[in-house]
Amino acid sequence: MYFFFFKQKTAYEISACLVGSEMCIRDMNLEHLVQLKWLDLSFNNVQKIEGLDKLVNLTDLSLYNNKVETIEGLDNCTKLNVLSMGSNQLISYEAVFTYLKKFKHLQVLNIAGNPFTKEHEFEKHLINNLTQLKYLDYVFIDEGTRLQYKDDDHKAPSADTFGDGQKYNEAEEQEKQIQERIDNLKKAHVFVLNTLADELASNNELVGIKVIPGVEEEVGQLVEKINQVIDELQKAVVGKNEEKLTLLKKFKEVVIIREKQAEDETIGLINEFQKKKKLAFREFELGLDNSYDKVQDLRFEILELEDKLMTIEIELVRNIEKARQEFDVKLNSIVEDIKSTVQEDTGFKRIKQYLKDFGETLQEITKVECDKFAEKAEDEKINLEELYTEMQISLLENKDGVSMQAVSYTHLTLPTIYSVQISVVAVSLKKK
Length: 432
Description:
- This protein has 14 helices and 7 strands.
- By secondary structure, the protein is mainly α.
């Protein structure tokens, strides 16, 4: 793995070769550095991005504080993961996201200090269009911000926005599906998992040593693995939650039916008694034979009616209790399935193992790289500044400190995992 760091030219160097002119990347003859991973061209009066066609393995490029007006010349740098273009002369954020959309691995973009950053809502448009980004101007893009910007940007789209009615309908349907998925994740209380991988990757201990060769690649693989587990976990829990909601709906329907049946039976008995009462009093008023006895009998029929109504009420309670017990058995089974899915190999148990494995790999990488650095530092013929950035040199010189950061990462992230796991399980145990 190779690194190149171009320092800002001194006054002597400028007077000797480039007085009054912009630095030309093409003149640096970088074509032979095909394995180059990191390139820092900050503070060099660069006006145009060119001469980087052969750097197909470049992952980190800094052109901070130059005079670049257009992002171009990076088409072959498809592995680009970090791009710093802050404090240049870029005037259009549309041109920025249009060009950078094709860089699927780009996760960090520094763009602050350019003319277009004075425009209102430029961040929203960059985040909405560069969905692969994790950090903008070194600020983590959380899921809430992304969803809010997406919602603002799509509240009232017109057919003209998409070119024709068919495209509009497709976009509207896609937006509907996205929102439906988000709603289902929230109902299942697993929406919180969406940002877990990125939170683990942005841990302070880890961010500090990402510049060490090989660490960034391992972080990317870790995030990919965890996101895969989370995606499978969310699908499973959402499916089980839908079963739970369906079961709850059926239980409520059973209760409503039983209550309606009891109510209808009660109303029928009361109406029947009311008819008998009216008939008895009418016959009594007319002085018909045995009418007095019929009125007297009403007292006994009232008592009989009360017994029947009580029987109906007791039967209703029994039926509902029986339905509730059946509901609880099925619900407990679903809840146990959710709990098992979350805790076992299909869920957090696998994530914890990934973190432990990653921690061990991290320690091995830092040890190997520190040892390599120490060997090169002892060789007087090697210029370390041509191979490493200042930050890398600072880290690799302190082997014990870097090793401690690698060890602490797993210990510091596991509590986060346990906390999220407990939260998800606790919510899954709720029966409503």
